[in-house]
Amino acid sequence: MQMTSAGAARERILLATAALLLGLFAILSVVPPLLSEAGRRLGWLWILYGIVLLIPVALLIPAVIRPRSLIASLVAALAVGVLLILGMSAQPMSLPRIAMHLAAILCLAALGSRVIYGVAGRRYKVLWIAPSLLLGFAIAYVAGGMIRLHMVVQVCNWLPLGREISSILCSG
Prior knowledge:
By secondary structure, the protein is mostly helical. The chain has one domain. Helices cover about 75% and strands about 0% of the residues. The chain is built from 7 helices and no strands. The chain is globular.
């Protein structure tokens, strides 16, 4: 039983919306600061910020182009972890946090739909999406910890670790 064209269209719409939301947000968060500093020094930090925001967009593009491809779904699953960790580093109730978490939710909905219809159609290869989601979270968490993106918020105040381990991890 093949995935119907309606199922592929649904996934394509969800992933395209997430990619469009992230791309638009990356452009709107990078271009105005660069234009405001046009006569002065060049803001390399803003360019780096824009490139980091465009990485999840690049991960979603293959799944938008070929929604029936398992490899494209696995790559899109890696973007979910990156989006959630980047969203956690943003200020609560801010536009960046809402945009990144909304894009992650749209990706999860598309991938969840793919897994559900795949298992119902006895195509168990789609279950590889679940380990890819976990790998995406691990990669994003380690990368965020390496650049100390969200370490203080999530690890330093986490009670199950205890004060000793928290103080070792959060010493700077």
